Amino acid sequence: MSPTNRQVRLAARPSGLPKPSDWDHVEEPVPTPAAGEFVVAISHLSLDPAMRGWMNPGASYIEPVEVGDVMRAGAVGRVTASEHSGFAVGDHVYGALGVQEHALSDGKGVVMIDPSLAPLPTYLGTLGLTGMTAYFGLLDVGKLKESDTVVVSGAAGAVGSVAGQIAKIKGARAIGIAGGAEKCRWLVDDLGFDGAIDYKTEDVARALREHAPSGVDLYFDNVGGEILDAVLTRLARGARVVICGAVSQYNATESVRGPSNYLSLLVYRASMTGMVVFDYAARFGQAAGEIAGWMREGRLISREDIVEGGVQAFPDALLKLFSGENVGKLVLRVDSD
Amino acid sequence: MSPTNRQVRLAARPSGLPKPSDWDHVEEPVPTPAAGEFVVAISHLSLDPAMRGWMNPGASYIEPVEVGDVMRAGAVGRVTASEHSGFAVGDHVYGALGVQEHALSDGKGVVMIDPSLAPLPTYLGTLGLTGMTAYFGLLDVGKLKESDTVVVSGAAGAVGSVAGQIAKIKGARAIGIAGGAEKCRWLVDDLGFDGAIDYKTEDVARALREHAPSGVDLYFDNVGGEILDAVLTRLARGARVVICGAVSQYNATESVRGPSNYLSLLVYRASMTGMVVFDYAARFGQAAGEIAGWMREGRLISREDIVEGGVQAFPDALLKLFSGENVGKLVLRVDSD
Q1: What is the ipTM, given to two decimal places?
Q2: What is the pTM of this model?
Q3: Letter string b/e over residues A121-147, b meaning 16 or more CB atoms within 10 A of that residue's CB
Q4: B117 — contact with chain A (CB < 8 Å)?
Q5: Are A265 and B257 inside 8 Å of each other by CB?
Q6: Residue A337 has what pLDDT?
Q7: How far apart are alpha carbons B123 and B329 in whole angstroms?
Q8: First-residue to last-residue Cα distance in chain B
Q9: How many beta-carbon contacts under 8 Å exist across A and B?
Q10: Residue range A133-142, pLDDT digits in tens
Q11: 3-state class of A50 per DSSP?
Q12: What is the largest CA-CA distance in chain B?
């Protein structure tokens, strides 16, 4: 354990893609818990497109990170010191512990996890918020039906890859949209998607005519922008569009590009609904149990894309999400054990 | 009765606002019914923003009007000749009879109306498709609740003025957005809206902060464009946005302006749903009966803005919808009785 606690703090609100100067690398002493507190040695950090939104000023579905604060991040780790009756040294936990090596916590929002059931990084992805987002977005917001043709954008990403697999498990057809032949092959060959569209080389609207000849019943959108517009032209009557995110727009320096084809909602009597996964927190345990069961049965593959390099590597690792480099859940390894 | 049947036919597909050269004025002999047919002398034509969409190529929720065809229009009139067992000379009817003085019909889509219950033009508006659109858009698609703050755009128009009044009748708060002080006064003083915002002189988002301090629960959108974007920033959590139309965009020569603020759907866990009134045809009778009851009780005011001049005046009259000149339902009087 290093005697210091390396942290990454927000130095400035970025315009467009975050620059190195938007971050401060700080070293502090490892904290000591007071009564009711404990300290977690963080092993892995979650990297999420939503982080870009947290860096903007103004309240959204969650308060922004203030300039000067440790950057917010989901993390897993091990309790190394405790004055808290609910958490003992050696316990493994998940929480929004921030981009740092050691986090002081009063236990709020921190949950126990079991490393014997799944590797720690899986609790940041498929058994964590991204898996929960896929599960509740598809089943609750999207009201998935067995007869649906489901299209998922960002399909090789953390949320999309799980969403498509859950659609298949529930008996629906799943078509993924991803960037690059390798990702598309992975979706079809390894994850069992019925089809994949490479948006970098294919015309998405035209490809959907082939892959979804009767139209798209449920579109799970992670990206926004041109892909959202293309799918809107190929909806089935009564289609449901789940707005989970818009990674193509998070670094927009001019205004966000709204979906020009939104009047397709009228033509197809369709709906577009936004979701925030935290609303389903009371049911996370049940959902994670179900997903873990599918993983055990080999019906759902969880993939993590683990970046080495510790918290210093956080600024660069975050950018991978926006260049579309990652496959599966992007995770930063913090410890060096 | 004129010995000829004056008609307006689509001469060319317009780019932007329809020009005089996009129309052909044609005279044909008044038709004679064959077996199973009847002829209607049209008294009034309905003018609807949706007509602009019917003039574009490509299937939408309804087939386009072909170049050379009589322009599609809802109409009311009186049967003047009949070889049809269901319609007798003297009957008053409503149907999509087209921009002409005399229509030949086989009865498909034509319904009997009773001029003793309401003036004929009311069957084109509040007791016709625009009233039905307001009713089902608000109650079925929008799932109106008594506790809702409802915002209606195009509020002084045919659909909007009825939607706001139904919201009030159902116990909700109604805020209208309209262009001009006179329309706004009419909404509040005559129709009983709780407030009105003049988008020509007020900042809509700022005004909504006053009129809907807890946010907009249900937004009934007839206009799209900047106003939709402004309302999206002021939604309440779980808000429902009903997309009924987008009159600001129908004459766009470049691409339609999509709502840049659509990610508010995520922030507010809101939905945006498109509607087409024809889907509710089976329940039109029940809805019209209920609306007629409110009119009789003096709780719902129906206003028609009647343009004189016969079918020749159709091209100019249509443009009034896009310049926002009409208050209430815009109707063209065809007969000269």
Answers
A1: 0.90
A2: 0.92
A3: bbbbbbbbbbbbbbbbbbbbbbebeee
A4: no
A5: no
A6: 56
A7: 10
A8: 9
A9: 101
A10: 999 999 999 9
A11: helix
A12: 62
